[in-house]
Write a structure and sequence with these properties.
The chain is mainly beta. Helices cover 11% and strands 43% of the residues. The chain has 1 helix and 11 strands, in the order H-E-E-E-E-E-E-E-E-E-E-E. A hairpin with a 4-residue loop joins strand 10 and strand 11.
């Protein structure tokens, strides 16, 4: 009797676990387990960027961490796995407006974003947008405020003539 009750409890727990993960599938390749959310929809993608730096010199880099949801990040120069193609995308970074030229395209979630040397000093916005793998923009964007400072430059000349004044 105890054996029957134990088996029933085990089967009940197994059935509950199967229902809980029914929206997921798993693939095992080379001892690596990949769990896919089959309900992911790139149209519902979300992105959030953070940085510990709020001030950066023009011409330097600002480190940014990205949290992206409902997208399979894939380098735009590579093909995504066939089962992830519908949710494949990459990240585009911009200064002040997504209508300006992209300053970085990546699939990495921890990146150093280059601030163009021509960026004027002052307050700016660093924007990140998820684009579909084919380059089509999504609505998923995030922004942080940054203060760009003038880049350091050195001017002047150095003389190497040592013949003067040795009389």
């Amino acid at each position: 009797m105890r054996t029957i009750i134990a088996r029933m409890a085990f089967l009940g727990a197994l059935a509950c676990a199967a229902v809980g993960i029914s929206a997921c599938s798993a693939d095992v390749h080379d001892n690596t387990l990949d769990v896919h959310d089959n309900n992911a929809n790139i149209e519902n993608a979300k992105v959030e960027i953070t940085s510990s730096s709020d001030s950066v010199a023009a011409g330097s880099m600002v480190h940014v961490k990205v949290n992206a949801e409902d997208v399979f990040l894939c380098d735009p120069s590579t093909d995504p796995p066939p089962d992830r193609a519908k949710v494949a995308g990459h990240l585009e970074f911009f200064i002040d407006s997504t209508k300006s030229a992209s300053i970085l395209t990546t699939a990495d979630e921890s990146v150093d974003v280059p601030i163009p040397p021509t960026t004027p000093a002052g307050d700016h916005k660093l924007l990140c947008r998820i684009d579909k793998h084919d380059g089509t923009a999504t609505k998923a964007t995030s922004e942080i405020d940054i203060k760009v400072t003038a880049s350091a430059s050195v001017s002047g000349s150095v003389s190497t003539d040592t013949s003067a004044g040795s009389e």
